[in-house]
Each structure stands twice: as structure tokens, then as C-alpha cells.
Amino acid sequence: MNRRDWIKRLGLGATAGALGVLSRPNAFAAETKIRSTGSLPRLKITRVRAIKTAPQRTRLVVVKVETSEPGLHGLGCATFNQRPLAVVTAVEEYLDPFARGRDVDAIEDLWQNAYTSSYWRNGPVLNNALSGLDMALWDIKGKRANMPVHQLIGGKCRFAVDCYAHSSGRDHQELEDSVRKNIEQGFRHVRIQLGGYGSPQLSRNADFKDADFGLPKDTLMDAQPYLKATPKMFEHIRNTCGDDVELLHDVHERVEPRDAIRLLKELERYRPFFIEDPLSPEANDYFRQMRAATIVPIAMGELFNSPHEWVPLIKDSLIDFIRVHLSQTGGFTVARKIAALAEWFNVRSAWHGPTDLSPVGHAANIHLDLAIHNFGIQESLQFNEASQEVFPGCPTIRNGYFYVNETPGWGVDINEEAAKKYPYPENPGYWEPVRRRDGTAVRP
Ligand code: MG
Which of 110, 172, 253, 260 could cysteine-pair with 278, CB 3.0–4.6 Å? Predict the structure, then answer.
């Protein structure tokens, strides 16, 4: 049966031709069967595997789903920098045998059943593994439809996505120089940090070390120097860089709830675009008090895993931006649902986009950003040359906007030979202890 006869038999006619659905000769490989409902040729998942690589020094895990159509594969991000080998095991020992032989088109069905196949769910390891499978199936769906993924979910609401750059400095001058550089490069939004999270360089007197408590390499962070320095940092940048640039800041959960509320009130006069993660997830109940005390826009949630963790904060309008690390919450399928819930409450998106997310994950962020009305802002990353070599089609930044490659699927592929040139760094990648002066552990 030739291509024309197939189109006739499927009743797709001009539509299929226009979409390019039937344009690949391999679409009719011997093992494919036609569904009783009559649509795309049925394809099966033949293998799910994890690829480890670190072109930007972060331990990336990318899941590759292979199908019964030779050469047709999808990629998904399953990166959990602090526990990557646990994710690799979850993918290869559990998800691969679970998914083999199943229908590549049934994304929702596969997500639901893979999600509950462990019975216990919503931990970071299993959610990342699930995300790898889920995103790869969206990539395949796009390739089969001959469309970029944002077209599958409604098409563009904007031509590209506004993103923010990172600026940090050990002192005001170094930070100011970095902000100016980002503005010169076209960024309209800049996240400002004085040193590392919680400005640990401002802390003195690591008494726990004198008392031989913990290990000598453990670091000190006292909240008060950070809390005093942060309003002064905003004042300096507003005074020197002007009022046009939008300023963001990440508290990174390291202070007590009452102190965080006071800090946000003090920052109101500098009109921050948002303040990120002012509370640790263990202090979620304080958002009600924070919201009542200050008008500063609040972004929260990059440490959440279960999709249900966002629900109370969204439905009571206690936050303004949802920080979601797509792979940590189970992938693209679930992130779309969180975004849709948020839209009804005027909560906007700010997907987590750090180095510990593969270019595939960044592309997934941007495809979602392009297609949802309640897009807020996107955290950005400049991919180095090694990342561009391993991941052809990486997203790009121009004039403060993040762009995806418009080829079908995510628009990002992987060069597996190049990936092997960038093995994981030798250290295991977990976070070392940060302590108060008396040795008490600080929660990031
Ligand atoms: Mg953060």
C-alpha cells in the first residue's frame, strides 16, 4: 500500500499532508498497526534509558525514549544534581521495563500509571524519572505532529519569553558592575545577590568550629548580617542603576519567618519585581501573615515536589509567582495543570531555570511559557560551548528574551558521543552543611 492509499484509508486527507504527519517513510514500519479509532500509526515504546553528562559541570540526567519507528526518539529532563545516580536507577530498573511495549501517544495515561506504579510517589527521585519519560513523550508527540510542543498546547501567546539574568557581587561595586553589564546585554530583569545565598561572607565568629562541632569544612551563615545588608543592597542598585530595571532577589529560605516578613516590608520602597522563596517549605503557614503584612510580590515553590504543595498557596492567592522545577514535580504534563490552576487565581509562572536543568528542561520551560496566558518571567541560563555541542538546538537568549528552536518537539537533540566527553565531576554533588554561629543547621 503506498502513501496515498494510507492517507485515504485513515481518512486524514489533506489535513495529514498539511501537518506532515505522514511525511516520514518510516512511519509505516512493519511493526506498526492502525488503531481502531483510525488516527496516527500506532507506535510502541521500545526502550527508556538515562544519559549522564555534565557539559556545564552540573550532573545532568536526560532520558531518551526510543520507539518502534526507527530513528524516532524523544528526550526528557530528569536532572537531580544532588542525587543523579538514584534517578538513573529509577529510570533504568523500573521505568524502562514498565514502559516498554506501551503506546507512545498515550501521554496522560502513561503519566498516571507510571506515577502510581511505585504506590508511594511524589519524591524527588521518582518525580524526576517520571519527568524524563513524560517530557520525552511530548517531544515524540511534537515530532509526529511535525510541530513544536508549544503549538500542541495552543500556540504562542507571545513571540518569545522575557527572562531574568543573575547578578551577584561580594560588595556593592562588584554587584553594580554586574547589573550594568546585564542591562547592556539587553536584560530588563536582573536578580541581585550580595555574595552567596544568605550572604554568608558577611558572617563572623564561627563559634561551632572553636567547639569542634561538625566538620571544619562546614560553613557559617548568620541571618542578621544578611537581613541588615539586603535593603542596603537594593538601595545602592536603585540609586546607581535607576528605576527602569526590574530587580529580583532570592532569600533562599534561610531566615526565620518573622525576619522574612520584616525584610519584605523593608524592601517595599525599592519596588522589587518579586522576592523568591522567603520561607522554607516547612513554614508555609506563614504565607498568610506575610501576605497580610506586605505588598511585595512573592515567588515560591522551587523546593516543592508534590503538585499538591502549590494548591493551598494558589487557591488563597498567598503568592504571586509559582516557582516550579518542572522535572521535580513530575514533568511537563503536571506543570501544565499547575499553570492552569494558577491562571484562575491570577498567579503567574516563574519556572525554575538554573544550571541544574538540562537544555531539554529549559526548552520545556520556554514552550510552556510561550503557550500560557499567565506567564510571568523566566529564569535564564547562558549555555556554554560544551552544552551547545552536546545539545544541538539549545535555547538562545537575545535582547533579554529566551527563544526556543522551532523544529518539531522540543527542538533540542543530544549528541551522545559528545556527551561522553563530559563525565560527572568527582565530588558527589550534595550540599554541605551551613550552620548558625552555635552550629544549628540552616535550611536552604
Ligand atoms: Mg531559588
Answer: 260
From the list 236, 252, 352, 367, the catalytic residue is 252
**Alpha-carbon distances of 420 from 147, 161, 372, 426, rounded to whole Å:** 30, 32, 36, 15
Q: CATH homologous superfamily for 152-409?
A: Enolase-like C-terminal domain (3.20.20.120)
Answer positive or negative: Cα dihedral of 399, 346, 322, 110: negative
Quote the ligand 1 centre to 247 CA distance (angstroms).
14
Q: What is the pLDDT of residues 152-177, one digit of tens each?
A: 999 999 999 999 999 999 999 999 99
pLDDT digits (tens, 9 = 90+) for 47-56: 999 999 999 9
Please indicate whether residue 249 is annotated as part of the active site. no
Give the Å distance between the CA of 190 and the centre of ligand 1: 13
**223-241 and 172-184 helices cross at what angle (nearest 10)?**
50
- In the residue annotation, 252 being an active-site residue is answered as yes
* Domain 3-148 class, CATH top level: alpha beta
Which candidate in 73, 115, 166, 197 is catalytic? 197
Of 5-14, 50-59, 405-414, the range with the lowest mean pLDDT is 5-14
Cell of 46: 521500545
Ligand 1 centroid distance, CA of 249 (Å): 9
* 273 Cα to the center of ligand 1, angstroms: 14
